[in-house]
Design a protein that fits this description.
- There is one protein chain.
- The protein has 516 residues and is an alpha+beta fold.
- It folds into two domains: 161 residues, Regulatory protein AraC (Jelly Rolls, Sandwich); 332 residues, FAD/NAD(P)-binding domain, CATH 3.50.50.60.
- A hairpin with a 5-residue loop joins strand 14 and strand 15.
- Helix 2 packs antiparallel against helix 3 and helix 13 packs antiparallel against helix 14.
- It is globular, with a radius of gyration of 24 Å.
Length: 516
């Protein structure tokens, strides 16, 4: 286990575990001392658990499950989990790293995310136990010449069998997280800065954020020959500017917020709204799977492609302002540059940026586009091809990085845009965060703005003694100057710093840093 005070611990595959593939059958009567198992963690591998007997209680991505045998539990490397309790269990467990898994199976595993534990019928259970028993027999033949190859093939066969079960019972695609939603959830850091620091302090979270902050060391501006033309030391930059900033992994912050409200808030997963209707002093909300429910107020905090906004305020196109750029983010589970550093390379109208932290690297590619590009948001390969085509002749390490983009199973693509709305409220419905006033990823403060907006709305309710009409009016009036300033900074400064349009602008940024 690699302990890391700055993030969720990663349980690493030990050298003794068969070179990236492993299987065993284990029995426990009870869990007498939770110890490190009680703490949230994630694996550096794909893990499968066939619960053959007994029951277990565990949290996966902060949702609790009570699981009875026979069941199969699949854990993606990006999923946070912890064991709460179990009793009289028999478990067959196997694990495999990306390098040892069939590429087609990797893609299918991404497609079933988030995969909840699945109860098995008699047919499924019989097939899996038979296959597992055979695989365990192979695992015992360590001295065989082809031991690793045989075990790898059997683990892949087991994975394919589990995949087939999930696809048999898969939910309609609308009930699962989209690829973009999953990547956004994954481990993309959130910046806590400015007004937000005071807000999280009021919430009692500042100490935890400081303890878990990513200690980013530097930003390097590179030329085509991989020579650093400017090095900005993060701590020195913050000291010179007098501004404090904390960067924290999104899942860590989500867990902090969840722990604050879990006893007071009801969470519903795997659901989406299909309509809103205001009726007197309530709003009726229609759901895709469940029965309609009524609420006093509805808050849309569902991101730049907000469904609440679509149903209540109108089509996204009416409020989205294209910033003449597109970007992609690819997360790879290895370090491509020194840890806790950022490197940036630009050519006119194109930028490549690497951000390394906690054993992984974000590959960010952004390019200028005069007009919007027509593409199918459901077709990930088409989006990859757009990036590959745009950057195919770009210098520095770009060719190597495009190989990573092509092979990675974690990819996100979108346009850079802002949400510009005349009002973030209508009737008993209000929008918060990117749904109402996205400043674009170029601002580097999407999560921070969401916290700022939620606090502004909460303060408005307190100041207006709970009168929602007055509170909404105050929210629209008092918070708007701050949003206008942030959005203007992106247009007037942020875009040119992120994607300089000329070699002169690149040279100036590489000489003066982001302060030019």
């Amino acid at each position: 286990m690699r302990k890391n005070a700055r993030g969720i611990p990663v349980n690493n595959f030990g050298d003794e575990w068969g070179g990236g593939v492993f299987i065993e059958r284990i029995c426990f009567e009870y869990l007498p001392d939770l110890g490190q198992w009680e703490q949230p963690e994630r694996h550096d591998r794909h893990s499968f658990f066939l619960l053959e007997a007994g029951n277990v209680t565990m949290e996966i991505d902060f949702q609790q499950y009570h699981i009875n045998a026979p069941s199969i539990i699949y854990m993606h490397p990006d999923q946070v989990h912890r064991i709460a309790a179990f009793k009289n269990i028999v478990v067959s467990a196997w694990a495999v790293t990306n390098d040892n898994l069939n590429a087609g199976y990797l893609k299918l595993l991404e497609d079933i995310l988030p995969a909840a534990p699945m109860a098995l019928n008699d047919r499924m259970f019989a097939l899996l136990t038979e296959a597992v028993s055979l695989c365990i027999k192979f695992s015992e033949r360590e001295k065989d010449l082809l031991y690793h190859s045989l075990l790898k093939d059997q683990i892949n066969a087991l994975t394919a069998l589990v995949l087939s079960f999930y696809w048999e019972q898969r939910m309609p695609s609308g009930d699962r997280l989209s690829r973009s939603e999953f990547v956004a959830k994954a481990f993309k850091p959130v910046n806590i800065l400015g007004n937000t620091i005071g807000i999280v302090k009021r919430m009692g979270l500042l100490d935890q954020i400081q303890l878990n902050a990513l200690l980013m060391k530097s930003v390097e501006f590179k030329n085509a020959h991989d020579i650093t033309e400017r090095l900005d030391l993060t701590q020195k930059r913050q000291a010179d500017s007098g501004e404090t900033e904390y960067e924290i992994e999104r899942d860590i912050l989500l867990d902090m917020l969840y722990q604050l409200v879990k006893d007071d808030v009801a969470f519903v997963y795997g659901e989406s709204i299909t309509g809103l209707k205001e009726q007197g002093d309530q709003v009726e909300v229609n759901f895709k799977n469940g029965a309609p429910q009524t609420f006093d107020l509805v808050f849309g905090c569902d991101g730049i492609h907000s469904v609440v906004r679509k149903y209540w305020f109108g089509a996204e196109a009416a409020y989205s302002r294209f910033l003449q750029a597109y970007f992609s983010i690819t997360i790879v589970n290895k370090l491509l540059i020194p840890e806790y550093t950022t490197q940036m390379y630009s050519e006119p109208g194109k930028t490549v940026m690497l951000n390394a932290y906690n054993g992984k690297t974000d590959i960010c590619l952004a390019f200028f586009a005069e007009q919007e590009i027509a593409y199918d948001y459901r077709n990930e390969q088409q989006q990859r091809n757009i990036i590959l085509d745009q950057f195919k002749n770009t210098g520095w390490r770009t060719a190597e990085l495009l190989e990573e983009v092509q092979q990675s199973t974690t990819f996100y693509f979108d346009k850079l845009c802002q949400m510009k709305m005349p009002s973030w409220t209508k009737g008993r419905v209000a929008l918060v965060g990117d749904a109402g006033y996205c400043a674009s990823p170029a601002a580097g403060r999407g999560g921070s703005l969401a916290i700022d907006g939620a606090a502004a709305l909460a303060d408005a309710f307190q100041n207006c003694q709970g009168d929602y009409e007055l509170a909404f009016a105050h929210y629209n009036h008092a918070f708007r100057p701050f949003i206008d300033e942030v959005q203007a900074d992106v247009v007037n400064f942020g875009m040119e710093a992120l994607i300089p349009r000329s070699q002169e602008a690149i040279d100036r940024r590489n000489k003066e840093g982001f302060g030019f």
